[in-house]
From TrEMBL:
Protein's name according to its UniProt entry: Histidine ammonia-lyase
Main location, first listed in the record: cytoplasm
GO molecular function: histidine ammonia-lyase activity
Family affiliation: Belongs to the PAL/histidase family.
Highest taxon of source: Bacteria
GO cellular component annotations of the record: cytoplasm
Gene (UniProt): hutH
E.C. designation(s): 4.3.1.3
Pathway: Amino-acid degradation; L-histidine degradation into L-glutamate; N-formimidoyl-L-glutamate from L-histidine: step 1/3
Catalysed reactions listed for this entry: L-histidine = trans-urocanate + NH4(+)
Pfam family, one: Lyase_aromatic
Length: 521
């Protein structure tokens, strides 16, 4: 299957095979979503189970009772439609800035995927309507605050369920804010009047935090490769050695991510005239490079292995059917605690730690370029006329500010818990908060690495007439296409840093390097 076919091929839900890449395709690129071949049969079968319980004199949570600390009240049949409607309306209590469209689309996809497993007891019409809303590009307005990451991402999912009812605010496919009823009508979609259990099934999952985890993993996979590229260019520009990246040295410590990063750096530094200029041990008196150069594969490799661990957790969660109560495979309706976001929250926090450390070592390499005492013959701050020009002095300040912020964002959210619902929900994961801060950290890492690339590009060009490696030259050329990374008198720097950021974000840096090196890890 070609890349184009993969991009436009519909994502199938309800078959247990949803992947991280599928989430990204739907959330970011608008891929269509369709139900697996057996999804509706499973949904109808479990719905029959729920309807069989609706008239039972025995109370069943979410079917004939209130919710949370109010679960002790039995709700008569004539009030159950109002029960579901009231649940969604009251729980749509988010506050603060609007959450990004891609996050809401990921959240919607993941809830649809769980509904399509047939384990939640919703009606087929409810699932099909939710799917139609997603495919129409209608995105409910969801807010920054409201989820504790336990009993599901309640407030965010409730804002989406509200739209399913034709209430609340949404953005249409063009991004215009409007009433949900208006957007649904324009798309030819009928709102749903929720029946027993459906309100609970729509809001009781880890979908928001899981969606953000999937998006962060996709970003970090590309970023860690870009960080290897930047590190190799810094080693080259600072007259460091690639001897420490030899495969046999890394075989002595068989950490898989470390070996992959070292391989990337060897490929980047291959055939470098700058590196060849100081291979003679008699001419080069330096015994060892600083840690930020020599240990780059160990740090980036540890980040890689952490991303792999987070990916495994995400894949397990993508294969889950999370609701409470849940309809089991043998037809029982059972209360459970699978909505607790702890497993997801932990890896979200873990990723914020490694993102901060990747940024920290990147900033240290940039700082070495700017310090004439440590940059091996380059001008102070890589300035054209030091004193008249400040060069990249303040670009490093910008890096330092972001790294400092990332260290604060690395403080784990998952160790906190504030009890809720009159102590019925007395321990929560704060996974949504972990995901929100990770998104900010990933964006900052992208900007920090971009600044290192700008510094390395300028430093390498200042080594003329010696030339960088072919791979480094390709990256410099790619950055030059979108901004100015050449040495010279001071200029308005922010646009050049933003252009480099965009080149990291859209993968242009990796693409340029791989045009020379072949596939990087």
């Amino acid at each position: 299957m070609t890349h184009t076919q993969t991009l436009h091929h519909p994502v199938v839900v309800g078959d247990g095979r949803l992947s991280i890449d599928d989430v990204v395709r739907v959330a970011r690129h608008g891929a269509a979503v369709e139900l697996g071949p057996t999804a509706l049969d499973s949904v109808r079968a479990t719905r029959a189970t729920i309807e069989g319980l609706a008239e039972d004199t025995v109370a069943h949570y979410g079917v004939s009772t209130g919710f949370g600390a109010l679960a002790t009240r039995h709700i008569p049949t004539e009030l159950r439609t109002q029960l579901q409607r009231s649940l969604v309306r009251s729980h749509a209590a988010g506050a603060g800035p609007e959450v990004e469209r891609e996050v809401v689309r990921a959240l919607m996809l993941l809830r649809i995927n769980t509904l399509a497993t047939g384990r939640t007891g919703v009606r087929a019409v409810t699932l099909e309507t939710y799917l139609a809303i997603l495919n129409a590009g209608i995105t409910p307005v969801v807010h920054e605050y409201g989820s504790l990451g336990c009993s599901g991402d309640l407030a965010p999912l409730s804002h989406c369920a509200l739209a399913l009812m034709g209430e609340g605010l949404v953005r249409d496919d063009d991004g215009e804010v409007m009433e949900a009823a208006e957007a649904l009508s324009a798309a030819g979609i009928e709102p749903v009047e929720l029946a027993e259990k459906e309100g609970l099934a729509l809001i009781n999952g880890t979908d928001g935090m899981l969606g953000m985890l999937c998006l962060a993993i996709a970003d970090l996979r590309q970023l860690v490769t870009t960080a290897d590229i930047a590190a190799a260019m810094s080693v080259e520009g600072l007259l460091g050695t690639d001897d420490v990246f030899a495969a046999d040295l890394h075989d002595l410590r068989p950490q898989p991510g470390q070996a992959r990063s070292a391989e990337n750096m060897r490929k980047m530094l291959s055939h470098s005239p700058i590196r060849d200029s100081h291979r003679d041990p008699e001419a080069c008196t330096r015994v060892q490079d600083a840690y930020s150069l020599r240990c780059a594969p160990q740090v980036a490799g540890g980040a890689r292995d952490t991303i792999d661990h987070a990916s495994r957790v995400a894949e397990w969660e993508l294969a889950s059917a999370i609701d409470n109560p849940v309809v089991t495979l043998d037809g029982r309706v059972e209360s459970n605690g699978n909505f607790h976001g702890a497993p997801v929250a932990y890896v979200l926090d873990f990723l914020a730690i490694v993102a901060a450390d990747l940024a920290s070592i990147s900033e240290r390499r940039t700082d070495r370029f700017l310090d004439k005492a440590r940059n091996n013959g380059l001008p102070p701050f890589l300035a054209d006329d030091p004193g008249v020009d400040s060069g990249l002095m303040i670009a490093q300040y910008t890096q330092a500010a972001m790294v400092s912020e990332m260290k604060r964002l690395a403080v784990p959210a998952s160790v906190d818990s504030i009890p809720s619902s009159a102590m019925q929900e007395d321990h929560v994961s704060m996974g949504w908060s972990a995901a929100r801060k990770l998104r900010r950290s990933v964006d900052a890492l992208t900007r920090v690495v971009a600044i290192e690339l700008v510094a390395a590009s300028r430093g390498l060009q200042l080594r003329a007439p010696l030339q960088p490696s072919p791979a480094s030259s390709a990256v410099i050329a790619a950055l030059a296409e979108v901004g100015n990374v050449a040495p010279g008198p001071d200029r308005f720097l922010a646009p050049d840093l933003e252009a480099a950021y965009e080149a990291v974000l859209d993968g242009a840096v990796v693409t340029a390097a791989e045009a020379v090196t072949g596939r990087l890890n």
